[in-house]
Amino acid sequence: MSTPPTSKLAPMSVQQIRLFGDPVLRQRAKEVTDFDKEVRRLVQDLEDTMLSASGAGLAAPQIGVGLRVFTWHVDGEIGHLINPTLALGEEIQDGPEGCLSLPELRYDCKRALTVVAQGFNAYGEPITVNGSELLARAIQHETDHLDGVLFIDRLDEESRKAAMREIRTSEWFAAEKPVVRLSPHVTGGFGR
């Protein structure tokens, strides 16, 4: 599936990818209700950013936008889905998975081998995507992002602990710790 042309919109840009620890990655994204030029611009920004980072997928929360939109780039195909719902196949695949919000981290993760994803394109037209293997993995991974779930949440306990150790010792995690701001208002005993 290819994305409809967006030549009438302002130039698109590569956005900064939010890293593990950023609160936006743990929040459920909101449904898209207006399929306007801003949504089409978001889709293009996601595609540009994903391709620039050589990713197989990218969800809007990963660039700080709390909307239910994601893109994918699998086997030379670029696509996007808005407000997805998934029907997972019963057969399971187990293989390496990574995430642009967790740089250089790759662990085996179980996912459904096939998926039927329904949602909308950037113009509000209903679409259905049938995916298997890597495309199914990418669709499930990106839909998880829309629900505030990261792939490390799906790892077995031993792998998750190993992943967390790797994250804590990574250069990017030390450099990108979220800033905690204290309220200047009286908080009634909640915080400082």
Automatic annotation (TrEMBL):
<feature type="binding site">
    <location>
        <position position="99"/>
    </location>
    <ligand>
        <name>Fe cation</name>
    </ligand>
</feature>
<dbReference type="Pfam" id="PF01327">
    <property type="entry name" value="Pep_deformylase"/>
</dbReference>
<dbReference type="GO" id="GO:0042586">
    <property type="term" value="F:peptide deformylase activity"/>
</dbReference>
<feature type="active site">
    <location>
        <position position="142"/>
    </location>
</feature>
<protein>
    <recommendedName>
        <fullName>Peptide deformylase</fullName>
        <ecNumber>3.5.1.88</ecNumber>
    </recommendedName>
</protein>
<dbReference type="InterPro" id="IPR023635">
    <property type="entry name" value="Peptide_deformylase"/>
</dbReference>
<keyword id="KW-0378">Hydrolase</keyword>
<keyword id="KW-0648">Protein biosynthesis</keyword>
<feature type="binding site">
    <location>
        <position position="145"/>
    </location>
    <ligand>
        <name>Fe cation</name>
    </ligand>
</feature>
<dbReference type="GO" id="GO:0046872">
    <property type="term" value="F:metal ion binding"/>
</dbReference>
<dbReference type="InterPro" id="IPR036821">
    <property type="entry name" value="Peptide_deformylase_sf"/>
</dbReference>
<comment type="similarity">
    <text>Belongs to the polypeptide deformylase family.</text>
</comment>
<feature type="binding site">
    <location>
        <position position="141"/>
    </location>
    <ligand>
        <name>Fe cation</name>
    </ligand>
</feature>
<keyword id="KW-0408">Iron</keyword>
<dbReference type="GO" id="GO:0006412">
    <property type="term" value="P:translation"/>
</dbReference>
<comment type="function">
    <text>Removes the formyl group from the N-terminal Met of newly synthesized proteins. Requires at least a dipeptide for an efficient rate of reaction. N-terminal L-methionine is a prerequisite for activity but the enzyme has broad specificity at other positions.</text>
</comment>
<keyword id="KW-0479">Metal-binding</keyword>
